[in-house]
Specification:
Length: about 775
């Protein structure tokens, strides 16, 4: 872009910069007269307080300008030294930097001139002196102070713009301006801005000290740009969405893709690794970080049991991935397969059934484990898992429904008993936390059901060992047992769940517990995607990695969290907990970056800070820093520590508020009814429309209810389909992509069924399976 064309297409942004500094100077002049002129009533105020007031006024002015519509559009540099630093980092082209500098100078001069017209002699009075910046404590001190404050301001601006807190950049910058005016102005007059000092010096007719403000601020800010190691954002202090950005527009389109680190998962391991990689890899543009997860949010699992009772709001527990990872490309898709040879990851289709393949240069596996009731009769059909947000919400809805049903069930005593019995299997941390919350919840809300006698409610914990919480000492385990028992939880120890029906839980010794609510927090199995990979694994299917978190014998593939067996330096294995996953993420990111940029690698040697588990209402157990604590103190510790660990200040505030209200208000008793997701879809197509394309992923089978369609292969019509005929089964049966395009030729109405549901139907109906196979062979038979 030439200077001329830049002026032609970006003059509005230049004008906004000029207007911004002009406004700032008018404010500076007005507040200086208001506070410093001998005739002002403010003279009665202590000089230190006056400086604080001036700081607050100018800090707020800066914030208002940065977040104003014009500030958002131009980027609100308002200062040639800021523009110069962004230019040094390659964030603003030379032509724009030049015009920004000129516009800022012109704006500053115009602002002082306008103020002079408004305030006349008052501004020229030596006490106001056109708001000039002068070295009050000597030239050397002023030079050093100006350079120092400019360096710090720019470093903060760069760090915040490139971080997930980017929207706070303006507040940080305004806050620093306020602080500097209060604390630093007695040394150098506080400028940090050559254009601002020039405007005041011209007004005052005194250019003697101007060189200090021409030299020190640009030097300080340039130094910050040089030492800054993070990922700088765009050259805007507030990069608001939906506002034109002349800087982003000018970035040349890439001719080749940057190298890519692909992270699979959206839990503790994946999110913390992505955050660290964003920080360490950002800025240079040679690597991009891509994260693939099936949900667009991160769940803070340690607090998940509290969703059952509604102690904390559903939304307070989750953080949108896009907010946590502003510099990561996020794909919210279910991962379907991983190809270690081709170095690709394939995700499930979205709105259109096209295969979506992501190539990677480095792969990070953080898929956790899955709850799998394989081999346990009736559990897949009747037990409720407890691992993610859906599970928690489903359980809560289920429990409220059971109470509602029990309240109106008067005839069938057996059913009533089943409805009012709640069974949790697994006495580890998650099982104990779930049973404690469930017990507190049902017993508290029972008061809202006059038809239910509290004595009818049974809450049972089934555990295979002779005491619960094997993760902590015997003393804490026994304490937990006493608390739960005192609150009405029946403990069935040395009992193993072996089967379930819709009406009862069956134990290995033949005993049965009548129930309509069975929760199982065990067992966890290797994730099927990990299972399918040819990687070194332990017996439980966890990937064997080196202490540096790289998969053994495989360069460029990394694993962490619950899906990996991570050796610690002392030879032990890291347990599958969030506190370990987050620490592994840091080590992994450091080592991955070292493998790209060079540098020493580090082994994982975190031993854990301790273990804590909530027992519900005001009680917990904690084994931290070698201390064993139980009861209220442990509960207070549990809440404080987990509150601090929640990502985001706002979220912490919301949870703290929910906990506080929970002390006085009864628990929420709302049951959500979600519309059934339509599995069997009825769809209509008009002539010329394609139902699917050749090469798409086979995700559904179709049957024609009415109308006609053509089968098109490589542009040629090879067959016609009519009412009652099936199509789309080939790709489903062969697990391949569509071999033909199906195009509507006459108004077409179809029903369609997803792949998974078809497989389930065919499994239970061998005739259906057979006819699908026959249809396939008929289709493959060459036509005469
Ligand atoms: C109820 C409960 C309470 C807990 N309490 C504590 C505690 O108090 N302290 C503690 O340290 N630990 C606790 N844990 C354990 C801790 O949550 C796990 O160790 C931690 O979550 C492991 O992190 P991860 O990243 O390995 O796996 P996960 O957090 O399980 O993340 C796996 C991610 O992969 C995604 N994923 C899976 N399959 C696919 C797919 N096919 N496509 C796309 N995405 C996919 C999932 O959606 C998920 O985002 C608790 C766990 C539970 C279930």
């Amino acid at each position: 872009m030439t200077l001329r064309s830049a002026l032609g297409s970006h003059w509005r942004e230049y004008a906004m910069e000029a207007a911004g500094l002009a406004t700032f100077m008018v404010a500076a002049c007005c507040f200086t007269v208001l506070l410093e002129h001998p005739a002002s009533a403010a003279q009665a105020i202590d000089p230190g307080v006056r400086r604080a007031l001036m700081g607050a006024a100018m800090g707020l002015t800066a914030i208002a300008l940065i977040y104003s519509p014009w500030g958002k559009r131009s980027g609100a540099h308002l200062n040639p030294a800021v523009t110069l630093s962004f230019w040094r980092l390659g964030r603003i082209p030379g032509h724009d930097a030049l015009f920004y500098g000129l516009a800022q100078a012109a704006g500053g001069i115009a602002g002082v001139a306008l103020s002079s017209l408004l305030l006349r002699d008052a501004l020229a009075h030596p006490a106001a002196n056109f708001a000039a910046t002068l070295p009050h404590a000597g030239v050397a001190a002023a030079l050093a102070a100006e350079a120092g404050i400019s360096f710090l301001l720019m470093l903060v601006v760069l760090s915040v713009t490139g971080s997930r807190h980017a929207r706070w950049t303006g507040v940080c910058a305004g806050g620093l301006v306020a602080l500097y005016i209060f604390a630093e102005a007695p040394i150098s007059g506080m400028s940090m801005n050559p254009a601002r000092s020039l405007a005041s010096a011209l007004g005052a007719g005194d250019l003697r000290s101007l060189w200090i403000y021409f030299l020190a601020p640009p030097l300080g800010m340039l130094a910050a740009a040089v030492v800054f190691r993070g990922r700088a954002g765009c050259a805007k202090l507030d990069h608001a969405a939906g506002v034109r950005c002349i800087f982003c527009e000018q970035r040349p389109p890439r001719t080749e893709r940057p190298k890519r680190v692909v992270i699979l998962g959206g839990g503790f391991g994946a999110v913390f690794a992505a955050q660290e990689l964003e920080r360490q890899l950002g800025g240079r543009g040679d690597y991009e970080v891509v994260l693939v997860a099936k949900d667009n949010y991160f769940v803070f699992q340690p607090m998940l049991p509290e969703v059952i009772s509604g102690t904390i709001g559903l939304m307070d527990l989750v953080s949108p991935l896009r907010r946590l990872l502003p510099g990561t490309e996020i794909h919210v898709r279910e991962i379907e397969s991983i190809d270690l040879e081709k170095r690709t990851v394939t995700t499930a289709p979205g709105f259109l059934p096209h295969p979506h393949v992501i190539e990677y240069d480095h792969l990070v596996l953080a898929l956790g484990t899955v709850t799998d009731f394989r081999g346990l009769r009736g559990l897949p059909e009747h037990a409720l898992p407890f691992k993610n947000l859906n599970d928690a919400l489903r359980l809560r809805n289920h429990v409220i429904r059971a109470l509602e049903e029990a309240a109106v069930e008067r005839h069938d005593e057996k059913l009533r008993r089943q409805l009012l019995t709640f069974v949790v299997a697994g006495g580890g941390f998650s099982g104990v936390e779930v049973v404690a919350e469930l017990n507190d919840f049902v017993r508290t809300v029972a008061a809202s059901y006059p038809q239910i006698d509290p004595a009818e409610i049974r809450v049972v914990l089934v555990h295979s060992q002779d005491r619960i919480l094997p993760e902590v000492s015997e003393k804490l385990g026994r304490f937990a047992q006493r608390i739960l028992a005192a609150r009405g939880v029946e403990l069935l120890l040395q009992a193993k769940l072996s089967a379930a029906t819709g009406e009862e839980a069956v134990l290995a010794d033949g005993r049965t517990i009548p129930t309509r609510t069975l929760v199982s927090t065990v067992p966890s199995f290797a994730h099927p995607l990990i299972d399918a990979l040819q990687l070194p694994k332990n017996k439980a299917g966890r990937i064997l990695v080196t202490p540096e978190l790289e998969v053994r014998g495989l360069v460029g593939v990394w694993a962490l969290g619950d899906c990996a067996q991570v050796p610690a330096v002392d030879g032990t294995t890291a347990p599958p907990t969030a506190q370990h996953a987050t620490r592994q993420a840091k080590v992994l990111a450091g080592n991955l970056v070292a493998s790209i940029r060079g540098g020493a690698r580090q082994g994982f040697d975190f031993k854990g800070l301790g273990k804590m588990g909530s027992l519900g209402r005001h009680s917990a157990v904690a084994d931290v820093f070698g201390l064993q604590i139980s009861g209220r103190l442990a509960w207070f510790l549990w809440r404080t520590i987990y509150l601090m660990k929640l990502p985001g200040f706002g979220r912490r505030l919301k949870v703290a508020a929910s906990w506080t209200f929970d002390l006085f208000l009864p628990p929420e008793l709302v049951r959500f009814r979600f519309a059934n997701q339509d599995l069997l879809l009825r769809e209509h197509f008009e002539p010329g429309q394609d139902v699917f394309h050749q090469g798409d992923l086979g995700d559904r089978i179709y049957a024609i209810l009415d109308g006609e369609a053509e089968v098109v292969v490589h542009g040629q019509i090879v067959a016609r389909l009519g009412k009652g005929e099936l199509f789309g089964e080939m790709a489903l049966l062969d697990h391949t992509t569509r071999s033909a395009t199906i195009r509507c030729s006459q108004p077409l109405t179809v029903w369609s069924l997803p792949k998974k549901e078809l497989a389930l139907l065919a499994q239970g109906m061998p005739e259906l399976q057979r006819s699908l196979e026959q249809l396939k062979s008929r289709r493959l038979r060459p036509t005469a």
